[in-house]
Known about the structure:
CATH superfamily of the largest domain: FAD/NAD(P)-binding domain
Keywords: FAD, Flavoprotein, NADP, Oxidoreductase
GO molecular function: oxidoreductase activity
Largest sheet: 6 strands, mixed
Structural class: alpha/beta
CATH architecture of the largest domain: 3-Layer(bba) Sandwich
Bound molecules: NADP nicotinamide-adenine-dinucleotide phosphate
Helix content: 25-40%
Shape: globular
Mean pLDDT: 96
Radius of gyration: 23 Å
Low-confidence stretches: none
Domain FAD/NAD(P)-binding: 4-339
Pfam family, one: Pyr_redox_2
Strand content: 15-25%
Distance between the termini: 36 Å
Oligomer: single chain
Cofactor: FAD
Amino acid sequence: MPSYKVAIVGAGPAGYFAAQALQNLHTDDLKFAIDMIERLPTPWGLVRSGVAPDHPKIKTVSKVFEKVANEPGFRLFANVELGTDVTIEQLQQNYDAVVIATGSALGKKLGIPGEDLPGSMSAATFVPWYNAHPDFNDEAIDLTSETAVVIGAGNVAMDVARMLALDPAELDPTDTADHAIDALKQSSVRTVVISARRGPEHAAFTSPELRELPKLEHTNVVISKFDVEAAIVRAGEAIEKDTKSNLDAMLLIADREPTSHDRTMKFQFLATPKEIKGEGRVEEVVFQKTGSDETFSIKCGLVITAIGYEATPLQGVPYEKGKVVNVDGRVKENIYVVGWAKRGPSGVIGTNKSDAAEVMKLLIEDLGTPKNSGDLVDVITHNKVVSQQHWQAINEAEIAAGEPVGKPRRKAVTREELLKLGRI
Ligand code: NAP
């Protein structure tokens, strides 16, 4: 009975869906031993470090990941970094196939003057900070100004703006990092501007996200009715279903009477960022009114760009334009890629399921005679590997710590704390 060994690098949604696809293809004649390698001491990728903490339903997909992880033949090697603890060549030698599922963790840059001033950062920093990612705990997020500007019109921009604009008490029953809740409770930010370079008809938000905004209990949400009506005219009769749904949702918001809340989230359309200005730190953003020569500026002390992500280059893996170079998920020799590292940062978590399944079919087509090779356990020289059992201990400890304070979990915030919870 052929039994193949597959290494999956990256324990996020794409990695788990790739493992699940292989497990679904198990037959009496074909079996896969799957080793999942993860840089952090915790698995689940964006489900832990990306999804907004006030969206707990989206995180229930972690139950699927745990089911995959508890299938026979699956092993987790977390706290193991490709390039440091193990090389791509070692994986290629020891496994029949290697699947890269490392996502896109780098925030794209605007490329405008002032972008690197203190007070200007990417959502790729701000989001993992509030989600207790161990690499971002020490970020100093300056929340002392009255106004913050979020650049971008996608769901990440929406998450970031909501986190800044909601009443932080609403985060108490969530798994937001303790340090972020404390900082947000001290925050002076009362106006959050989401700026889009194009009109409402081109916004990348999805309508469920827009439709939940009026449910914010302590935040005024402001969209100009003039902007939405102009967008409806521009979109014309051949308008796509999703665009119509978005514009309908925006119109509902625009039609609402303003409330007396002292927190406001305001949409600014047709605003192309030109420069971030300030003496030693962010003081204002200069925009050009898209399609005209007119400029205007917004005074603010915090700018967060949410304009897309790029994959982190991996040594020994071809990389171009923010992605791993691939043809339908095939990279080279016995290397494959799935998820955002393959196709760029698009789609929802579930999109990775069909995407990974397609690539795993190709991987199986390419398989030759199973390799009779060594074990990853012998390759990794440090003794701080987080196995599935260790992770389960961490998971249970975090959930238990959350229970008395009414949270789904209380996340540990440093690698040391996480390893301690895992009894490593
Ligand atoms: P996105 O949906 O691609 O949105 C990126 C936004 O950045 C677009 O509005 C884009 O505008 C803008 N942008 C790009 N370059 C820019 C520039 N130089 N200057 C100004 N604006 C610029 O990306 P995302 O928000 O990072 O989300 C990534 C994926 O995750 C998406 O598929 C998203 O739906 C998904 N996601 C889903 C959820 C959820 O389901 N709740 C939550 C978060 C993320 P243009 O269109 O003009 O280029």
